[in-house]
Amino acid sequence: MTLAAFVxxxxxxxxxAISPGPAVLMAARTGALEGWxxxxxxxxxxxxxxxxxxxxxxxxxxxxxNSAPALLSVFKILGGAFLLHTAWKMWKHASDPLVLDARPPxxxxxxxxxxxxxxxANPKPAIFFGAVFLGLVPxxxxxxxxxxxxxxxFVNEAVWNIFVTRVFSLDHPRRIYIRLKSTxxxxxxxxxxxxxxxxxxx
Length: 202
What we know:
The protein is mainly α. It is built from ten helices and no strands.
């Protein structure tokens, strides 16, 4: 695999990581509500979830989905259901008053699990990585290059979402979020619901 091909894969994935989706929305909300440290741990979980999908694509999960479409349908339904459940919780508690001192950030393990679950709930990365890796990564690529690709995927996802959670944890964006909490939680909840429905139907 040439250096140019390696850079192309990394940059295409970075563009996908930056585009708005469940990961970015969850990072933004966690940063605003629970601070950048909790958001950073969540971002690590998002990175680990992306690595799972990338590794699965490298090791043939896309081939499995092609040969057993029903399995992909199950993944889509489960992932969509998780996003819809998250949307319902956001909408249900949107009007709850936000008292930050009475709502300490979640623990590190909880934040990590939420990050991984959010990333795994969306099977779109499986299709994305399958298409990108099958198209740009030659089958004879040596294991060290595979490992470097997985590391790049983790760094792209984790660093971008740490940036997002950091921005939303700053005083000015955070004050805006707190002031508009009810509206923004419903907007975020609506976006998660739309993403969940899209995952199930596409």
